[in-house]
Amino acid sequence: MSEARENVDNACKAVCDALRYLGDASYAILPPNVAHELGDFKKKFLSNVLSLIEKDIEWIDARVAGGDRLREEWKRACNREQSEQAGEPAN
Questions:
Q1: How many C-beta neighbours within 10 Å does residue 48 have?
Q2: Hey, which of 6, 22, 27, 86 would disulfide with 35, CB 3.0 to 4.6 Å?
Q3: Mean pLDDT of 30-37
Q4: Mean pLDDT over all residues of the chain?
């Protein structure tokens, strides 16, 4: 069993090494200043995407909390109406 695990680990390492090499080569073929500018551009782009995702998560959390508050308000209103109806005398 451990031999099979080692084979899988070795295969994963080989794939990761190949991908890392291709990534390095994709920047190595560019002039140094272009490679650095491209890297900076990609980092800024991904930072903006991350910021948008974080804001969306905050928005979702706020909507869920608002839904909880609204649900409690509805529940209180329903209970109040039921208690008022139960307290009315029969005509």
A1: 10
A2: 27
A3: 98
A4: 92
Is the C-alpha dihedral spanning 20, 21, 26, 31 positive or negative?
positive
Q: Nearest to residue 30, comparing CAs of 15, 41, 14?
A: 41
Q: Whose structure tokens read 């930072």?
A: 47
- From CA 13, how far away is CA 19, in angstroms rounded? 10
Angle at 71 between CA 65 and CA 73, to 5 degrees: 105
Count the neighbouring beta carbons within 10 Å of the beta carbon of residue 72: 10
What's the pTM value of the predicted model, to 2 decimals? Answer: 0.61
Query: 89: which DSSP letter?
Result: P
What was the pLDDT predicted at 88? Answer: 62
What is the amino acid identity at position 72?
A: E
In 1-90 the beta strands, taken as DSSP E runs, fall at: none
Contacts of 17 (CB under 8 A, 6+ apart): none
With contact defined as beta carbons under 8 Å apart, do 43 and 51 qualify? Answer: no
